[in-house]
Design a protein that fits this description.
Largest sheet: none
Structural class: mainly alpha
Number of domains: 2
Radius of gyration: 26 Å
Number of helices: 10
CATH topology of the largest domain: Tetracycline Repressor, domain 2
Strand content: under 5%
CATH class of the largest domain: Mainly Alpha
Number of strands: 0
Helix content: 55-70%
CATH architecture of the largest domain: Orthogonal Bundle
């Protein structure tokens, strides 16, 4: 006689997790967007526009291709967003701490040096080089970034000059009057920031350039203030 086989009770079925369709909460959506843009920036810097793929970006972002395409029409749209976000948004977000020094020259030198040390980092320069290299493919993007970068940096310059000179006698000079401050700020940036920016776009080792920033700013600020005192 065969021994009877006891039938084991069936294991309870795992409860299926219900996934709700629709848009994720704003906090989660922002985190996903940030992951995608950060991953895309890294892949574009490593591969260039032509060599980068949505597959690799999705893997780097720990996200699905469907998620990326739900936010960006194609690789061109993603590249455009990366460039505008990393260059323009970062200029707009820049905040300088309390400048060091007792004289207006010392404070202005401190603020300008902080701006250049912050701005001329390897990733930011790499992305700008890439945007310039792809200008033939994205002419409107190149023109927009150039125009908006100048506008935003000029606004930043106006803010710095107004804040740093208002408590000093130099703030009463015509160059710092409300009707001329915008032009003065642009001249200040063209003298102090633009030459270093152009060099940074071609320098292989930015550490060498970084070591020259403080001396360059000190010379430029002294020249700038002397010109302003002589009715620039």
């Amino acid at each position: 006689m065969k021994a009877s086989t006891l039938k084991q009770p069936a294991a309870p079925k795992a409860k299926r997790i219900e996934v709700r369709a629709g848009r994720p909460p704003k906090e989660l959506a922002g985190e996903v967007d940030g992951r995608i843009l950060d991953a895309a920036r890294r892949v574009f810097l490593l591969r260039g526009f032509e060599g980068a793929s949505i597959d690799e970006i999705a893997e780097a972002a720990r996200s699905g291709k469907r998620t990326i395409y739900a936010r960006f029409r194609d690789k061109r749209a993603l590249f455009t967003e990366v460039v505008t976000h990393d260059i323009l948004a970062r200029i707009a977000e820049f905040k300088v701490g309390a400048p060091i020094g007792t004289t207006v020259e010392e404070r202005l030198t401190s603020a300008a040096a902080t701006l250049l040390h912050w701005g001329l980092d390897a990733d930011r320069m790499g992305l700008m080089r890439l945007a310039i290299a792809e200008a033939h493919r994205f002419p409107e993007l190149a023109a927009t970034v150039n125009r908006r970068a100048r506008e935003l940096s000029t606004e930043l310059g106006v803010h710095l000059l107004r804040e740093l000179t208002q408590s000093d006698e130099i703030g009463k000079l015509p160059a710092f009057g409300a009707d001329r401050l915008h032009e003065t700020a642009r001249l200040f940036l063209d003298l102090i920031a633009v030459p270093m920016l152009l060099r940074a776009l071609f320098e292989v080792d930015l550490k060498v350039l970084d070591e020259e920033i403080d001396a360059h700013v000190a010379r430029g600020v002294a020249f700038f203030l002397a010109a302003c005192r002589n009715e620039c």
